[in-house]
Specification:
Strand content: under 5%
CATH architecture of the largest domain: Orthogonal Bundle
Order of helices and strands: HHHHHHHHHHHHHHHEEH
Largest sheet: 2 strands, antiparallel
Number of helices: 16
Shape: globular
Oligomer: single chain
Radius of gyration: 23 Å
Number of domains: 4
CATH topology of the largest domain: DNA Binding (I), subunit A
Strand order of the largest sheet: 1-2
């Protein structure tokens, strides 16, 4: 059985220009103070060790146009003490008039980096606890489904894995700090999404995929086990709405764009993508990977329940 693998974003290539551009991108996300390898690794799409082996850390920062961000070995990154960081959190709290301080507020009003605070205490929530501030209840207001649906919506908007900062802006309805509060770190939140998407994908395999699984070696989950997950008759495709994992797989296959007109939210303001049945569900079409495609809201509304005879409903070139 084919299972789509979710992969966290990494650089597509590691040319000198790609690595230097990544340093500039991360430096822009941390606008104050030095840029340590540890901070770089927490936000970058490549490892600081790769950069160091290629250029040397000091030279790499110079090539990226940010030589002032280099910190000599053993020099503390304007090493604020724990007490200073806690005092700054409290100062920002007083400035914004709230006993809940968000990462964005701290970046705007604080004297040091929010990333420095997170790294020192392990997470933003733990830092707030140390400062005697209240942790936002955002982590308890939303269900896992709401977190994952929001992440998929933002992923679809950009056509790629969103960054921590992008989750604080529309179309995200749940800020990145809430993900961090619930899972501990942004990366752990992404891994939780990965596990959910892969579990859904296994449970929504089509009959064709199940048939292939039945011929698999004994160590591969059996069709009988598959049916136990899907119900007594194994009809995972008989429900109208595709699961989150199945929608993610279809959107990724179609490159997060409409297969009819090519529209996508990243370049078309107001474009909204839907996962649509090629053969309408009302006409017997099943909710399986082969019968789903990505359409923009305009093409989807214009299509209605019409069953297309042209090959336009076929999967785009290069699909899985």
């Amino acid at each position: 059985m084919f299972v789509a693998k979710f992969e966290l974003s990494r650089l597509a290539s590691y040319t000198d220009a790609d690595l230097v551009a990544e340093i500039r991108r991360v430096a822009g996300m941390i606008p104050l103070g030095g840029l340590s390898k540890k901070e770089f690794d927490s936000l970058a799409r490549c490892s600081s060790s790769v950069v160091s082996h290629r250029f040397g850390w000091k030279r790499a920062l110079a090539l990226a146009g940010v030589p002032e961000r280099y910190m000599a070995r053993g020099k503390k990154e304007r090493m604020f003490s724990d007490e200073e960081l806690i005092a700054e959190l409290r100062s920002v709290s007083a400035a914004v008039g709230s006993d809940v301080v968000t990462v964005e507020q701290f970046q705007k009003h604080g004297r040091m980096n929010a990333a420095t605070v997170r790294l020192r205490f392990g997470s933003w929530g733990k830092a707030l606890q140390q400062a005697g501030l209240r942790i936002s209840n955002l982590g308890r207001r939303y269900s896992d489904d709401e977190y994952f649906e929001n992440l998929l919506a933002v992923w679809t908007h950009y056509g790629r894995q969103p960054t921590y900062g992008e989750m604080t802006r529309p179309p995200s309805k749940i800020p990145s700090g809430a993900y961090e509060t619930k899972w501990g770190t942004w990366r752990k939140a992404l891994l939780a999404f990965q596990e959910r998407a892969e579990r859904d994908d296994r449970d929504d395999a089509s009959p064709h995929e199940v048939a292939r699984a039945s011929a698999a070696p004994p160590n591969v989950p059996s069709v009988r086990a598959k049916r136990r997950r899907c119900g007594s008759n194994g009809q995972s495709g008989d429900r109208r709405q595709p699961s989150l994992g199945l929608r993610y797989r279809v959107l990724r296959r179609d490159r997060f764009m409409c297969v009819l007109c090519g529209a996508n939210p990243a370049t078309n303001t107001g474009c909204e993508l839907h996962v649509d049945h090629i053969v309408a569900f009302s006409r017997g079409g099943r909710t399986v990977f082969e019968n789903l495609r990505t359409l923009c809201d305009r093409c989807n509304l214009g299509k209605g329940s019409h069953v297309e005879e042209s090959p336009s409903g076929a999967r785009p070139a290069g699909s899985e």
